[in-house]
Design brief:
- Helices cover 38% and strands 14% of the residues.
- A 6-stranded parallel sheet has the order 2-1-3-4-5-6, sandwiched between helices.
- Helix 1 crosses helix 2.
- The radius of gyration is 17 Å and the shape is globular.
Length: 244
């Protein structure tokens, strides 16, 4: 079965996908750590979405992974849009999860400029914990908040500022209609980072797209409702049944 590549978002890492282990049944899961984040926190930081995409494609080529299904979360959803733009034939199916086509993030819980300012004032660790809390409906009281915050804390201040810059300067709106891959747009209806306008734009602009909305979840659906998240992704990626 086609491998599934998972690309985390801002202040994320490969360790955030532990609850997605059921998706490995019958296929390999390839969980990347972007430069500056997660287990690659020691790598030089990147401040352009296009450069993250180029790095990811080269990393997969180096691992001998030529064709794959692709899932991107948040900033990772921007990155996978660029990966598809540059290498559409390598991607079989695409999942755009809690993401959008505009990096300026209209409707976000705070502007990117505010996040930059507060990060420089508060430091990396406090910023990681504060922003990670916004990803959960119950904030710090969420069951998996502590695990998520620990992953976020691996990012240094340079990576945080560079990631914010990368998002702020990116737009993929002009390319949405050119995405020919079958796409699942997946979103929690309480997301404080990407509002409905971003999700609607993806869904209505990508020609072969399906929308999945999970109620009573925020930005970390994969941790808040892993059972439903995994079931929806599995169903989308499953090969079609043979006719009787």
């Amino acid at each position: 079965m086609t491998p599934l590549v998972l690309v985390h978002g801002f202040m994320g890492g490969s360790a955030q996908w532990t609850l997605q282990s059921p998706l490995a049944e019958g296929r390999s899961l390839v969980c990347l750590d972007l430069p500056g984040f997660g287990r690659n926190a020691d790598k030089p930081v990147v401040d352009r979405i296009e450069d993250f995409a180029e790095w990811a494609l080269k990393e997969l080529t180096g691992r001998g992974i030529d064709r794959f299904d692709l899932l991107g979360h948040s900033m990772g959803g921007m990155i996978v849009q660029e990966m598809v733009r540059h290498a559409p034939d390598r991607v079989k199916r695409l999942v755009l999860y809690a993401t959008g086509s505009r990096g300026a993030l209209p409707g976000r819980f705070e502007t990117i400029e505010t996040s930059k300012k507060r990060a420089m004032e508060d430091g990396a660790r406090a910023t990681a914990r504060r922003i990670a809390a916004t990803w959960f409906s119950k904030r710090e009281d969420a069951e998996h908040y502590a695990d998520c915050a620990a992953i976020s804390e691996m990012a240094g201040l340079d990576a945080i500022l560079s990631g914010l810059t990368a998002m702020q300067s990116w737009s993929g709106e002009a390319n949405l209609s050119k995405i020919g891959n079958h796409t699942l747009v997946l979103w929690g209806d309480g997301d404080r980072t990407y509002d409905w306008s971003q999700i609607e734009r993806l869904w209505t602009s990508i020609p072969n797209s399906t929308l999945g909305v999970i109620p009573s979840c925020a930005h970390a659906v994969h941790a808040e409702r892993p059972d439903l998240f995994n079931a929806m992704v599995h169903q989308f990626l499953a090969p079609p049944s043979a006719p009787n």
